[in-house]
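Hi V.,

You were right to ask for the full record rather than a summary. Here it is.
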Amino acid sequence: MSAETENLATGQTPPGTHATAAEVEPGWWVQPKTVWAVALAAAVSFMGIGLVDPILPAISADLHATPAQTSLLFTSYLLITAVAMFFTSWVSGRIGARNTLLIGLGLIVVFSLASGLAPSVPWIIAFRAVWGLGNALFISTALSTIMSESRNPDGAIVLYESALGVGMALGPLVGGLLGMISWKAPFIGTAVLMAAGFVAILTMLDKSAVEKRHTPVFAAFGAFKKPALLSFGLIAIFYNMAFFVVLAVSPYPLGFGALGIGLTFTGWGVGLALTSVFGAPALSARFKRTTIIASGLVALFIVVALATFLVNVVPALIALIVVSGLILGVMNTVLTESSMESTDLPRPVASSAYSGIRFLGGAIAPPLATSLGHAFGWSASYVFGAAALIVAIVLVFSLHGPLSAANKPHDREVVAG
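Predicted structure:
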């Protein structure tokens, strides 16, 4: 193994790319306060995805909606998030990363509160869509900001994905606890937490952080001319279909109340967070990223396939959900690292493109999977997730050439904003 390859495997930056090995801080957790401020706000933002899980059955019952209709709470949120993310690099390039983050957080605060006060499911779906716009402005810009301000780009991705994991872990717990009061309470609670995130960014992130840079409005779409980024994006679409089958469908066959669902998915999220922080770097130090991705997809396929047969055995389903979180934590981190480091694109553009295509799968899966489950039994939903993973596995092996760019050092254009 060459010195440069060893540096990449261990998460250090190759000489001449960002910093010399001597200049890189010893761990991913050694970051400037601005990076931590954005990461903490990102964790709260990701809570918005998971907090809906425990209250889906309650919303269905109280507002007389079918599971397929309530699944649109995910779809409207994630579809707008995905589409808007393709343009976040252009927005942040014009008004600055700090302003983009604050606008995104402001929209989340207003429309999460509105969701909690909504009189019917269609209104919640509409408010969640605008919430998704705020989420897009914040999440994509947060990733590029953390990477730009970090002392160690690979460590920054670990921090970002661990924030995702923490948010995913806390979201169901908060949703479950507040959902015991009312299905409205988790939405209102999120508004309060995101307001705290708004204050953190306002006070801790300097106005000069991540300089403005003119970016063409369709730059993110042009990024898919890069074979490696397009390949990872296609895999991410189908991988995220399975991810959101687990997240959006599983509350129904579990048959628990809000707290039971919340605790189950807290275990799932804790596993996701732990493997994001510890599992992914350890595996990346020993194996090629493409090997980890292929193995992770196969392992996740086995878990989802088992769920099709054990969907009515609640203890087994709980165990499978938690195990899936362990796999998803590794996959999230390694896929993000691979997509960001396999191209020489400016970070805001690469982040905007990958983040957008990543969430498309999450927007597509919930209504299709829940409709299948409602019509044919919940096993059919997991069959859908398993089929999506088969497509992802086929893509990994058929696109091995461009994907291999993630396995070797790659000089990146260092740009701010």
